């Protein structure tokens, strides 16, 4: 009998390994989808005879829909089945990918890619994390969270490079077709997924759902408008914050009355959950900040093309992926909170190491060491944070917890991208004006005009592109403007890198609080959420 038991164990282990790989593939597609769309904008505009603003609006709408409905998506997983929500989310993404492959106009992109795909993301993210929680235990659960986290991280890092390669040498339609093929492969293994049943309250909190859409949607819309340099940013974010505050009040009030809530406010009494969500948000702020500042530095200052910039960032993405897998497998008895502390420490050291290099280097090779250090830190973080946050949560509440966890990560990434970009452009504007005013070469009557021209036209140009723009100016004026541009860029990029550095340092401080409390104990399938 013992001899018959061993093959069964191996079969189960092989099935779990395949399931973990399929979940990682699903996460990779989810993250790389937006990168592919971003780098394909000009090609999509040309092929579909549409406008840049139209395609950018579709990208913003997809992010807005997925963020606004993510808490509702987690509740749908509870009410109709986490496995079913996972399948519907994948199908939503497949519909969007196929629509992009066949699209002949902007309407198809908006309806199928932005709206249906955005709803698919809102269903897929929390359902995926819930299913990891329900299908794996112990070391296998920790390793799967690490693998899926590493897959998301490397997709965020290499997505622009991969998308740029496919768009340049093949077609943007091929990229989206490949997404649909990967989703088909993921769905082919759906029989490996064991549903995680929900036995809690099945009533629907309509007011909570509405407030979550207003709150999440308002904040994300404000961030998107901020990123695009639009107006009413403060008003939109204010509406979102008021909506989230009203949601919190409503949830507490409903819970005390013993009525159904969109999510259980008791979750936030779990200290490991609160600290884990904070760590997740700060890690994503740092990643988003680095992912906008570094490519701009490489392309605008070192004048790399997209492929060269992507290769220069490979030390960050590859070390992130490798360390996440290694830490997931080799963590052993080490405290997750201790690993998280080391992750934020290495991330802070790596980003800090970039600051003195930015104004001095003329090649991406000089960035390899700090990028390896920062990537190793991010790898340690993605290997631990999801498991740290969700492992103590009971099956009954894990969808709600996963929805909040996903929302925190999405907000952090969006905020990191938008805030770092806004700070960089604001610093460029200030520095352009200051250096123009101090110039002894520019005529006094031209200083304001030159500063304004640099603000409007040169902020995302390399010196070579700027030189072409200045072809009609006298040589002395050309040299002075190029000098101002050359001096201003590194200062702005250094200031921009302070955002991911600040997030890393805040995360490090948060990790010391984690270390002072007991590490989370994984819940049993029917166990309660540990409080305190």
UniProtKB/TrEMBL annotation:
<keyword id="KW-0812">Transmembrane</keyword>
<keyword id="KW-0472">Membrane</keyword>
<feature type="transmembrane region" description="Helical">
    <location>
        <begin position="172"/>
        <end position="193"/>
    </location>
</feature>
<feature type="transmembrane region" description="Helical">
    <location>
        <begin position="53"/>
        <end position="73"/>
    </location>
</feature>
<dbReference type="Pfam" id="PF07690">
    <property type="entry name" value="MFS_1"/>
</dbReference>
<feature type="transmembrane region" description="Helical">
    <location>
        <begin position="339"/>
        <end position="358"/>
    </location>
</feature>
<feature type="transmembrane region" description="Helical">
    <location>
        <begin position="85"/>
        <end position="103"/>
    </location>
</feature>
<protein>
    <submittedName>
        <fullName>EmrB/QacA subfamily drug resistance transporter</fullName>
    </submittedName>
</protein>
<keyword id="KW-0813">Transport</keyword>
<dbReference type="InterPro" id="IPR036259">
    <property type="entry name" value="MFS_trans_sf"/>
</dbReference>
<feature type="transmembrane region" description="Helical">
    <location>
        <begin position="404"/>
        <end position="432"/>
    </location>
</feature>
<dbReference type="GO" id="GO:0022857">
    <property type="term" value="F:transmembrane transporter activity"/>
</dbReference>
<feature type="transmembrane region" description="Helical">
    <location>
        <begin position="273"/>
        <end position="297"/>
    </location>
</feature>
<feature type="transmembrane region" description="Helical">
    <location>
        <begin position="205"/>
        <end position="226"/>
    </location>
</feature>
<feature type="transmembrane region" description="Helical">
    <location>
        <begin position="309"/>
        <end position="327"/>
    </location>
</feature>
<feature type="transmembrane region" description="Helical">
    <location>
        <begin position="364"/>
        <end position="383"/>
    </location>
</feature>
<dbReference type="InterPro" id="IPR020846">
    <property type="entry name" value="MFS_dom"/>
</dbReference>
<feature type="domain" description="Major facilitator superfamily (MFS) profile">
    <location>
        <begin position="19"/>
        <end position="449"/>
    </location>
</feature>
<feature type="transmembrane region" description="Helical">
    <location>
        <begin position="232"/>
        <end position="252"/>
    </location>
</feature>
<keyword id="KW-1133">Transmembrane helix</keyword>
<feature type="transmembrane region" description="Helical">
    <location>
        <begin position="109"/>
        <end position="132"/>
    </location>
</feature>
<feature type="transmembrane region" description="Helical">
    <location>
        <begin position="491"/>
        <end position="508"/>
    </location>
</feature>
<feature type="transmembrane region" description="Helical">
    <location>
        <begin position="144"/>
        <end position="166"/>
    </location>
</feature>
<dbReference type="GO" id="GO:0005886">
    <property type="term" value="C:plasma membrane"/>
</dbReference>
<feature type="transmembrane region" description="Helical">
    <location>
        <begin position="19"/>
        <end position="41"/>
    </location>
</feature>
<dbReference type="InterPro" id="IPR011701">
    <property type="entry name" value="MFS"/>
</dbReference>
